[in-house]
Amino acid sequence: MAKKKVETLRVTQIKSSAGRLKNHQACLRGLGLRRIHHTVEVAATPENLGMMNKISYMLKVEEA
């Protein structure tokens, strides 16, 4: 059986988490983002895509 290539996405935080809903702050932490202009690469799993969708107004997402 061939291995499936996992697609990765480059996610950058562009807005502050201060004053946001606790669930939105938790999504940022779950994605590994810590501060504005911090960039991480995450796998394009349904869990990560759901978190990115919820806080899309705070993120910039690119294909890695």
Textual characterization of the structure:
30% of the residues lie in helices and 25% in strands. With 64 residues, it is α+β, with helices and mostly antiparallel strands. It has a single domain (8-34, 43-63), classed as Ribosomal Protein L30, Chain: A, CATH 3.30.1390. It has a 3-stranded antiparallel sheet, with no helix packed on it. Helix 1 crosses helix 2. The termini are far apart. The mean pLDDT is 94.
Topology readout:
Layout: E1 8-13, H1 22-31, E2 39-43, H2 46-54, E3 59-63
Antiparallel strand pairs: 1-2, 1-3
Helix pairs in contact: 1-2
What overall geometry do the principal axes of the alpha carbons give?
Answer: elongated
Helix content estimate: 25-40%
Strand order of the largest sheet: 2-1-3
Mean pLDDT reading? 94
The total domain count is 1
Concise overview:
By secondary structure, the protein is an alpha+beta fold. The chain has helices spanning 22-31, 46-54; strands at 8-13, 39-43, 59-63. The longest helix is centred in the middle third of the chain and has 10 residues, at 22-31.
Descriptors for this entry?
64 residues; alpha+beta; Ribosomal Protein L30, Chain: A; three-stranded antiparallel sheet; 2 helices; elongated
